[in-house]
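quick q for whoever's on today - can somebody do inverse folding on this one?? i tried earlier but teh output was garbage lol. tokens:
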């Protein structure tokens, strides 16, 4: 789906309103700081903003997406737009100096120039000081956009010279909607959206066969715990631990297991609209009749406790078996 200010506004309404107002009033700042969690569209917004500023055919600041400038910005090869990313673990002084050298030259096609610094919080001290001098003496018609997930790690003097725009996490309902729009399986999208707020990460989970199998195994474990408890340890040995064979994978398994217990509680409370495993409502309704609210709450507390202990130097299989025994006991 082609990006527009309209659909960006549904995700980041405050940011879009401020950028649109700055263009309409011809008060575009010389430096912006886009700060917010991973996956909130900071780079995407930067690229669209750049198109609006450089587009030759757009109407009311909506880029046309078809002119030479729009196409080159989209492909990352516009001569007057620069993207700086970490070289290894950090952004180095030399990278900022090279950027400054580029900006001493006349614009290739116009007086406008724009640069984007991704992960600006990863600048070395020397790089940050070099950038500070650059921000203190901005060139005419130059726009800087700094992107960060951790604005507190930037120099206060840099922050003070930028207009800060805060990007909010994508609401889960919108994240699921976007995943489904991209033709991901709704049942997987619903679970993925609970595990991450990053659209890219959620989509990667939806495309991962391991994740789809993990969801199926959690459903099977939950059903086994409540209908054939004498088979549970066999299931763990033969299927569960082979699939969740390291601590990171087991954490994901526990996260999904926690979701299905929450869903059971929602079913008991008559709040089916909150259920994540929407394709398992019949099973949840059936099993919710066999469990008290207190038992479900205890199960969730035990899962959370196991999640805390899992990164300690413990035998993960033994730890999980202990959890299963507690879940069976209620």
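ok took a stab at it. sequence:
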């Amino acid at each position: 789906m082609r990006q527009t200010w309209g659909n960006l506004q549904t995700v980041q309404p405050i940011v879009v309103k401020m950028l649109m107002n700055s263009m309409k009033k011809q008060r575009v700042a010389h430096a912006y700081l886009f700060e917010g969690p991973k996956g909130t569209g900071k780079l995407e917004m930067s690229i669209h903003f750049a198109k609006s500023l450089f587009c030759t055919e757009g109407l009311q600041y909506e880029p046309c997406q078809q002119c030479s400038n729009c196409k080159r910005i989209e492909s990352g090869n516009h001569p007057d737009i620069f993207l700086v990313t970490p070289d290894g673990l950090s952004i180095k002084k030399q990278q900022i100096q090279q950027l400054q050298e580029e900006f001493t030259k006349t614009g290739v096609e116009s007086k406008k120039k724009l640069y984007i610094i991704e992960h600006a919080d990863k600048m070395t001290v020397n790089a940050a000081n070099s950038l500070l001098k650059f921000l203190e003496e901005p060139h005419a018609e130059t726009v800087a956009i700094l992107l960060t997930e951790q604005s507190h790690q930037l120099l206060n003097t840099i922050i003070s010279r930028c207009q800060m725009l805060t990007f909010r996490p994508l609401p889960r309902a919108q994240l699921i909607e976007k995943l489904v729009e991209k033709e991901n399986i709704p049942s997987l999208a619903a679970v993925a959206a609970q595990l991450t707020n990053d659209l890219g990460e959620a989509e990667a989970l939806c495309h991962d066969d391991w994740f789809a199998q993990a969801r199926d195994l959690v459903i099977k474990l939950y059903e086994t715990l409540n209908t054939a408890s004498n088979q549970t340890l066999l299931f763990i040995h033969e299927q569960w631990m082979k699939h969740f064979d390291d601590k990171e994978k087991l954490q994901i398994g526990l996260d999904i297991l926690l979701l299905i217990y929450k869903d059971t509680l929602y079913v008991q409370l008559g709040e089916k609209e909150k259920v994540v495993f929407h394709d398992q409502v019949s099973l949840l309704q059936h099993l919710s009749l066999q469990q008290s609210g207190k038992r479900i709450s205890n199960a969730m507390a035990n899962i959370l406790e196991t999640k805390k202990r899992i990164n300690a130097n413990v035998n993960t299989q033994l730890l999980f078996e202990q959890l299963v025994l507690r879940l069976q006991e209620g």
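fwiw Strands lie at 31-35, 81-84, 113-117, 142-148, 163-166. also The chain is about 55% helix and 10% strand. so keep that in mind when u check it
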